[in-house]
Structures are given as structure tokens and as C-alpha cells.
Amino acid sequence: MIQRFLVRSIRPLQRLQLGHSDLSSVLKTTSLQILFFRTQALRIIAGICGLIVAALGIYLLNQSGLNPKSVIHALYQILFGILIIFCELRVERVLKYAKFLTHFLGLGLYYLFVAGLALG
């Protein structure tokens, strides 16, 4: 799909008879823009998921009654949902204390943990 997009964007550029170096710089810029758009879209989706987890925690807190286990579970969900939102907004104050959220492996394992908490 990306290749089709790049081919479609190259054809008008070839008609302009750009040099090889100009064409390669345009291709690099275009591919970087596509990559930037995809990562921004994934960060927005992850932020929305964090919001959903926090909202689910608030709902469970309202429905839990006086059961201490359910109250603690709901509070953890709210806390971890807010942490996901802060992580995707790149809040430096939070990331300073949670360095594992700045790496792909740490972030992925954290998302799996929160998903297990939300589903279990």
C-alpha cells in the first residue's frame, strides 16, 4: 500500500525531471511523513484506550459497593489508565520516574499487564 502511494507520488515528480538526488530526498521526506503520521495515530489510539481503561475503573468503582477487592481493583485501573494517558502525552515528570515506559519492550509489557488487569 505504501509502495503504491509512493509510486503515485513519484510519477508527477518524474515529469518535472528532477535529478536523482532531489527525487531521493523527496522520497525520504515522504516516507518519514508517513511514518510520523502512523506513530501519531497509534499514540492517539493508545491514549484513547487509556481513557477507556480509566473510565472502566470509575464505572467499576461505582458498581463495587463495599467489596474491598473490587474497590482496590477499580483504583488500580484508574491509576494505570491515567498513567497510559500521561505516557502517550509524553509528560516528562512521569517518564522520569517510569523509565521503562520510554522503551518499546517496557511499554508493550505494561500494556499487556493493563489489558490483563482490565479483562480479569
Description:
The protein has one domain (2-119). Helix 1 runs antiparallel to helix 2 and helix 3 (68-88) runs antiparallel to helix 5 (104-119). It has 5 helices and no strands. By secondary structure, it is an all-alpha fold. The mean pLDDT is 80.
Can you describe this structure in just a few lines?
The protein has helices at 2-15, 20-63, 68-88, 92-97, 104-119. With 120 residues, the chain is an all-alpha fold. Helix 1 packs antiparallel against helix 2, helix 2 (20-63) packs antiparallel against helix 3 and helix 3 (68-88) runs antiparallel to helix 5 (104-119).
Overview features:
elongated; single chain; mainly alpha; 84% helix; 120 residues; 5 helices
Q: How far do the termini sit from each other?
A: 37 Å
* Overall body shape: elongated
Strand content range? under 5%
* Helical run tally: 5
Counted up, domains total 1
Query: What low-confidence regions span 5 or more consecutive residues with pLDDT below 50?
Result: none
pLDDT averaged over residues: 80
State Rg. Answer: 21 Å
User: N-to-C SSE series?
Assistant: HHHHH
Percent of residues in helices comes to over 70%
Total count of strands: 0
Q: Which class do the helix and strand fractions yield?
A: mainly alpha
Major sheet: none
